[in-house]
Amino acid sequence: MEWAFLSIDLIIPLVLIAFGLSAKKVALGRINFWIGYRSARSVASREAWEFANLLAGKVMLWEGLSQLVLSLLFGILALILCPVEVQGSVCTALTLLQTISLIIAIPSIEKQLQQKFD
Questions:
Q1: pLDDT (0 to 100) of residue 106
Q2: What range does the domain containing 70 cover?
Q3: Could you give the CA distance from residue 30 to residue 78 in angstroms, rounded to a whole number?
């Protein structure tokens, strides 16, 4: 994997880690429609906003850390073991898996919001 591919695969995990670390500040701020975990349930009340953003922050932080480790592991292995022609496919597969894992987390957060606030 060319170093450019590896750096691309590190963008999503690093962004998730940054958002995860900043979620507490967002949760303690006022409800807004620009930044934070926003859904009909999360903006329904101040308590729901704080809960949703703190939970989403934890999810993003852990997903970011796990994705960072996996991206580094598979990226470095691809650099060492795969021909350049295959490295782009490895990069694409990693990015797709990162995106899918993030999308899968959303229903879990919504379910917890529903259980706590409905």
A1: 92
A2: 3-117
A3: 44
What pTM value is reported for the model?
Answer: 0.85
User: Two tokens at 99?
Assistant: 């995106």
Compute the distance between CA of residue 111 and CA of residue 107 in angstroms, rounded to an integer.
6
Residues 15, 17, 18, 24: is their CA dihedral positive or negative? Answer: positive
Taking the alpha carbons at both ends of the chain, their separation in whole angstroms is: 48
SS3 for 58?
helix
Structure tokens at 86: 């295959």
Helix, strand, coil percentages in the chain from 3-state DSSP, rounded to 5: 80, 0, 20
Q: How long is the chain? A: 118
Three-state secondary structure call for residue 60: helix
How many domains does the chain contain in total?
1
